[in-house]
Amino acid sequence: MGIGKLVRLNRLFAHPSARLCSVAIDHFIDYDGGLPASLRHIRPTLAAIMAGKPDAVTMHKGMAASAWGPYAGRAALIIQSTLPRVDGTQEQWATPEEAVRLGADAIAATAFIRGDTEARQLRVVGEVVREAERFDLPVIFHIYPRHLDGVPRVSHEPEDIAWAVRCAVETGVDVVKTSYCGDSRAFAEIVADSPLPVVCAGGPQSGGLAAALEMMAEAIGSGARGATVGRNIWGFPQITQAVEAFKAVIHDGKTAREAMQAAGL
Questions:
Q1: How many domains would you assign to the chain?
Q2: What is the extent of the structural domain holding 106?
Q3: What is the CATH number of the domain that holds 245?
Q4: Residue pLDDT, tens place only, 152-210
Q5: How many C-beta atoms surround the C-beta of residue 221 within 10 A?
Q6: What's 28-84 look like in SS3?
Q7: Measured in whole angstroms, how far is the alpha carbon of residue 60 from the centre of its chain?
Q8: Is the entire prediction scored with pTM above 0.85?
Q9: Smallest Cα–Cα separation from 188: which of 223, 162, 213?
């Protein structure tokens, strides 16, 4: 590993816990049902997120160029390079060179695997890895297995998550982000078998912040090196406090109830 990549990875995992608490606002074209209100009003949402002092924020290149300026250097920046959908559609619209020019500490690439598009999607991510090596830029692979019976949807089955993590490792990325499988023992085995850091996706918006935090506490207790959370932060009215609560779980090992109390909720 080159020193440039090591510097950037150390920024991502700079907290004494050695875990990452990142917030994602890269949910634009992935939504078929329109843009969520919090992302439509991006400036106040981003201000509320940054008030909670996350370790990093993940966004597309256009948002970084137009809205990240007031926060540059205050948290690590991760550029999402992919436009993915669960049906297997996958387009790349940001390059590692663009990410470096924007000052990013990492580039993210996303794929929904299983089915006829799996090999192609993994190949595309492999190409991102090869190009990122030129810049010593870490690659975070957001990888999700699918159920393909009927309407494609994300699978949370432990064996599917294990397959996804192994596929991600084989592409040569630096960090794997995937869904929590809902079984702490199974997820602990998946994390233990991975030679790369595994961080947890925040998942679809749950019925309440407490439920989202409980899921995260299980994932962290299973060995996850942190999380990237989107809807379960900006989907709640008290965005800043939600960031603080997730940090309390991820970095301090607090329970959901303790984290909510620490965040004043």
A1: 1
A2: 3-262
A3: 3.20.20.70
A4: 788 899 999 999 999 999 999 999 999 999 999 999 999 999 999 999 998 766 678 99
A5: 14
A6: CCCCCCCCCHHHHCHHHHHHHHHHCCCCEEEECHHHHHHHCHHHECCEEEEEECEEE
A7: 13
A8: yes
A9: 223
